[in-house]
Amino acid sequence: MFSEEEVVRSHKDRADIIITLVTLSFGFILIRLWYLQIYQGDMLYEYSIKNRLRKEVISASRGMIFSRNNQLLVHNVPRFDAIIIPQYLSNKKQTLIKLSEILDMSVSSIEKTLKKYRAQARYRPVLIKKNISKKEVAIIETENEKMPGVSVQTFISREYKDKEIGSHLLGYISEISREQLPKYRKRDGYDYKLGDFIGQAGVEEKFDFFLRGQDGYQFMEVDARGRMKRVISSNNLFQGIENKASTPGKNIRLTIDRDLQQAAFKALEEKVGSVVAIKVDTGEVLSMVSRPSFDPTQFSKGLTAEYWNSLTSNEHNPLRDRVIQEHYAPGSTYKTFTAIAALEEKVVKPTEIIKCGPTFRLGRRVFNDWKRSGHGDTDVYKSLRSSVDVYYYKVAKMMHINDMSKYAKMFGLGSKTEIDLPREIPGLIPTAEWKKKRYGEEWQLGENLVCAIGQGYVLATPIQLAIAYAAIANGGKVYRPQIIKEIFTNSGEVLKTFAPEEVSKVNVSDETLKHVKKGLYQVANHREGTAWWYRGRGIRMAGKTGTAQVRSMTQTELFSKCKDMPYKSRHHGLFVGFAPYDDPKIAVAAVVEHGCGSSAATPVVRDVITKYMKKYHPELHKKYAEEDKIAYLKLVRKEREAREARERAQELKKQQEQKENEENSEEETSDENDSEETN
Description:
Number of helices: 23
Helix content: 40-55%
CATH superfamily of the largest domain: DD-peptidase/beta-lactamase superfamily
Number of domains: 4
Strand content: 15-25%
Largest sheet: 7 strands, mixed
Number of strands: 23
């Protein structure tokens, strides 16, 4: 047995251990309290404040876009979106049911949206429904206490004043996609997140960096359920926590004229095609329209599935900018450059006559002229005004394809114009080397003939044709098409200006350009011109018609009525022109797909030029209109006199024939009487 002394000693040892443990525990607690309250007290206090704060993004207003005459084309309007911040979403099931009733959405669709953004930080808002009504805003704000984590966010939406007019040029904004995130973050050095809107086409995309501005943010105090208690007005709560005002985007002034845009859009009504107008002496784009079109406002305020499907299912592809993203066989508009090559290479002289029948034979192949009866004696002027195919077949036979292509390329055909818009395509001007590389075959002489009239491998965009004809009009200067005049702030401070940029000067003599311009003038101002019916209106237009076949045709099909063909087999119609002829100001190119020839495109160019002349040169327009009227009346009188002279001549001939018949009849009667007397 243990003695009493041994028991006491045993208990004392245990007590010492317990006391030591208790003392150490209290010591550890005191040290921990000191560490938390003294050493890290300020930092933990800051954390506690942060837990009561919510960072609200203040969206920056996007820069506005104006016309050359300071007319507003694109601006911003506020809209309201319903959002959920997952961090504060408690009692999820009940909250989503109530929210679905307010927004007229299914719970599953809301959950699907939340699931889509689950990879992002929980404090970031998730957009549930865009552009909600004022009634929905009021209900959400009223029921906010019952739906923690749900709130209304104000968003600056984009509005395009003229809707579909010029939408391809202006572009649109929409949400950045998951695939675009890494690419755009790397490109711009900006922390994009899902739900951010960026420029996706046109000017909006190309100049997104200037237009988008910088978002700001403010901190709000919230309770444990995430409900807002007050906005923190302090600008410096703690280091790294301070409110930041948003910085609006920069504004852009375009070279575009709004009135010309509207005129071009109207001229293309019920047509599939495009038109582009530029200033001859600067390369500034005055009008740029593609149809069918789309309403870019729909993309900004919340694109519906129905509207998107209507665009993607349209066989005419309304989202494609036909001015820079579609190339065509230029047809007879290309004959101008074949004529320049022939004159410069001394293959023909301006007044040299070439006999042009209805066909031209090369080996076993027969090439038809568009006119069934042919054109007879033809010089370079008539070849242009009457668009004589056989003339160019004969010229092309005497030339190498590289010589023809060389001059076309001088005027900018076959390469991008480098206009400040995304996804421009280059077109194609073929050479012998190109064909060898592309197909592994030698160039054939017959291909010369096809290319000489703008068919075969030759492809050009409307913007290229406009620039090329502007160079003919201005004496050989090829400009880069300019769409931006300046970038400026809301206060009016100009940050950047854009000056005309001359890319090159064509190596073509003034005499050659003079002869070609004369032929182009006759196209619309000579009785035999292919655009004779579209003359007048006080614009003194010069230019070239073009009909581009979309497939090979038999001789029977070639001379059959175009409008009787299936739509997809009908020829494209083109016209490229400039005005006034004696002092060119504007060049315009138009293409009407399956328009059955230039008769569909020429009125489009005429209407745009007429609008330009009336607006910017009313005195010249009035003067030319009066002169055209006088000239027309003289022509009518001359033709009437000629017709009357022909009628008089016919009447005299008829009378002469009648007299001769009567005399012959009398002679026959006399002969008969003489014969009877003899008998």
